Amino acid sequence: MELKFYQENNASIIEIVGSLDTMTAPEYEKQMIEMIDGGSTVFIADCTQLDYISSSGLRVLLMTLKNISNKGGKFILFGMQEPVFEVFKICRFDNLFTIVADKSAALQSIA
Amino acid sequence: MLKNRSLRFKLSAFILTGTILVAAVLFSYYYSVSRKLILESALTNARHLTMETVNSVENVFRSTAKIPENLVYVFETGITDEKALYRFMETVVKNNTELFGSAIAFEPGAMVPGVERFAPYFYKNNGQIVYSNLSDPAYNYHLQDWYQIPKELNKPIWSEPYFDEGGGDIIMATYSVPFRWPNDGVNENKFRGIITIDISLVWLKQVFEELSIYETGYGFLLSQSGKFLVHPDPDNVMNASIFDIAELQQDEKLRELGRKMVRGQTGFMNIIEPVTGQEVYLCFAPFPSSGYSMGIVIPTAELFAGLTRLNRNVAIIAVLGLLALFGVISLISGRITEPIRRLSGATTLIGQGDFNAVLPKIDTNDEIGQLMRSFETMQIALAEYIENLKKTTADKEKIEGELRIAHDIQMSIIPRTFPPFPDRSDVDIYGILESAKAVGGDLYDFFLLDENRLGAAIGDVSGKGVPASLFMAVTRTLLRAKSMNMKNASPGKIVTSMDIDLCTENDASMFVTFFYFILNLKTGELEYCNAGHNPPFVLDEDGEITAIDTVHGFPLGVMEAEPYETGKIKIRPGTRIVLYTDGVTEAENEARELFKEKRLLETLKLMKDVQDPKEISLAVKKAVKEFTLEAEQSDDLTMLVINYLGENYTSK
């Protein structure tokens, strides 16, 4: 897994590349906590290159969501591939997260 | 080639090679210059010797040539009668020891008018002076070479040497001088005849024998035609010419030498001696009066014998010197590399695990001293590192031991005795739980709520390892507690109640996907609640497969939301319910492909007539293992299969 961060329209955009699973979730968790503790509150996760997500991955995403929500921020996911979206659907996470089609939709929803 | 040799060997080899090269260059230079000097000096000496010989021999020839002049003088003194002439000639032959004989051959009528041939000849025979007249008409001396050639050339000549057979078999030569008379200014220059003297050339042999030329060097003498007059090999003398030998040996160089000598040239040549086959230097020069030519032969080997001896001594000294040098280098390089060898021994010990091996003490501050200190530092660091590693390994082993115990505990809290209800004929159950790590986050459970109702659940905690296993234990404990306390509550109620407890103080955001159902074994009514879990499959008694795909909400622990609802279906005897976690459908092979529901369904289709839950479970597990092969198990693999038979079910 690889994480890339950049700023756009006051949002911190995170590109998640590869698998988000037991092996890689701790790294994601660590970096996200650093960002949140650094004061960022609006996050957009670019999932277009996220190939696989396990329950560990779901847990760290959920943790991010809870953390950001507690601070009154926003966490939006976009560009999710079908297999990953299936996993979200099974555990109903599609109802929990704000998931949009693409980046422009994501940026709109925070505007 | 040198790669496997010791430093000591290489050092010695390089220095010795260098020394040998320098010595070889010096020696070659010295040798070639010496050789040149020796050759120059030898050739100069040879030339001097040749010239001395030529001069001394020439003196004899010249003095001999005076004799005929004296004879001519006879006519000037007025001897006209034959008797006086005979007496005079006899006296001359007698008094000149070197003279073998002498003749005066006249032109017709020059001495005695009217006499065609007049040629008195006096010669020595056994110490007596013998008179002979050459006027035999058959001999006709006027036509002989010794008479005609000097007459025509009008100058004295030496004949080719010859063996005088009657005169004692000795080499002789004849000197013929034309004379004119009277010399009174009126009839001047009238040719009157030839005066000859015969002289022995034996003394020449002695002259050459006395020449001292190195060990086997020698001198030789050639006649005008190249015939050997003097030669160390007596067979050659008067028998062979230099050209004969050149012809025999096919030696062009020898032939060239012969030509040069016969032409009366002076010089040096470097040839192969025909008899010995050795290389020789040759100095040659002519005798101007007779046209003979002498040569001095110097064998090259003898010429350079001194130099060769010197070379041998130098070579012996060089070898001894190099041996001594080798010894010294060996000693020095041994001294230099000795600490390295000791260090090597010590490091071998370290390599074998003896970290307290004593490194050799080096006080110097050169490269070897520095190396030694580096090794000391390394030894200490290595010892510390190994000590740490031992401790870490011990700690790890302890943790692993504890994890094994945790695993056993975890396994003990889920039912693992199959068949679970051996005395019941209406239901059979089989479960598999294989953790990817020592402890895992998957769980299943089942229990009888009362005589006719079976509660069964499967769950998957997010993540793996110890945190997940603790969460799993909590989930299972809650399930049992809630089910026993609220025996008549619907699955939705039980799940909602569990969720509230699990959401409380859940800082780690752990959650568990959970499927719980209650099956009435009498009626086949099945109530269920799915909290974000993979939809279970139902194989009905006809082999039809359907998914129970209603999901009632988030996994447990995510957030407190609306209460979970309860779904209801009714199943007939012969129906099998297959519960599983994503450890089955998301099992990964080495190509990172997932097993997927598709493969699970294919496997289940093969099992449509199989009632035994164990057989179905193991078939799925086998399919997964055949799919993943060598790939490391990525997630916990959990299945729970319930075979509902109801009352009086009979297999088709």
Question: Summed up, what is this model?
Answer:
Chain A is α/β, with parallel strands linked by helices and 111 residues long. In chain A, 45% of the residues lie in helices and 31% in strands.
What secondary-structure arrangement, pairings included, does this model have?
The complex is a heterodimer of chains A (111) and B (652).
Chain A: E1 2-8, E2 11-20, H1 25-37, E3 42-46, E4 50-53, H2 55-70, E5 74-78, H3 82-90, H4 93-96, E6 98-100, H5 103-110
Parallel strand pairs in A: 2-3, 2-4, 3-5, 5-6
Antiparallel strand pairs in A: 1-2
Chain B: H1 7-76, H2 82-95, E1 99-106, E2 120-125, E3 128-133, H3 145-153, E4 157-158, E5 162-164, E6 170-180, E7 191-200, H4 202-209, E8 218-222, E9 228-230, H5 242-249, H6 252-262, E10 267-272, E11 279-286, E12 293-299, H7 300-303, H8 305-351, H9 367-412, E13 427-434, E14 442-448, E15 453-461, H10 465-485, H11 491-503, E16 512-520, E17 525-531, E18 537-539, E19 545-547, E20 567-570, E21 575-580, H12 582-585, H13 596-606, H14 613-628, E22 637-644
Antiparallel strand pairs in B: 1-2, 1-7, 2-3, 4-6, 5-6, 6-7, 8-9, 8-12, 10-11, 11-12, 13-22, 14-15, 15-16, 16-17, 17-20, 18-19, 18-21, 21-22
Helix pairs in contact in B: 1-8, 5-6, 8-9, 10-11, 13-14
Structure description:
The complex is a heterodimer of chains A (111) and B (652). By secondary structure, chain A is α/β, with parallel strands linked by helices. Helix content of chain A is 45%, strand content 31%. Chain A has five helices and six strands. Chain A has helices at 25-37, 55-70, 82-90, 93-96, 103-110; strands spanning 2-8, 11-20, 42-46, 50-53, 74-78, 98-100. In chain A, strands 1, 2, 3, 4, 5 and 6 form a six-stranded mixed sheet that branches. In chain A, helix 1 runs parallel beside helix 2. The N and C termini of chain A lie far apart (29 Å). In chain B, the strands form four sheets. In chain B, strands 1, 2, 3, 4, 5, 6 and 7 form a seven-stranded antiparallel sheet that branches. Chain B has a five-stranded antiparallel sheet with strand order 9-8-12-11-10. Helix content of chain B is 43%, strand content 21%. With 652 residues, chain B is an alpha+beta fold. Chain B has three domains: 7-58 and 204-303, Beta-Lactamase, CATH 3.30.450.20; 78-195, Beta-Lactamase, CATH 3.30.450; 414-644, PPM-type phosphatase domain (Phosphatase 2c, domain 1, 4-Layer Sandwich), CATH 3.60.40. The model of chain B has no long low-confidence stretch (mean pLDDT 88). The A-B interface holds A 21-22, 25, 52, 54-56, 58-60, 62-63, 66, 83, 87, 90-93, 95-96 and B 441, 460-465, 508-511, 513, 532-535, 551, 553-555, 558-559, 582, 586, 594, 634-635.
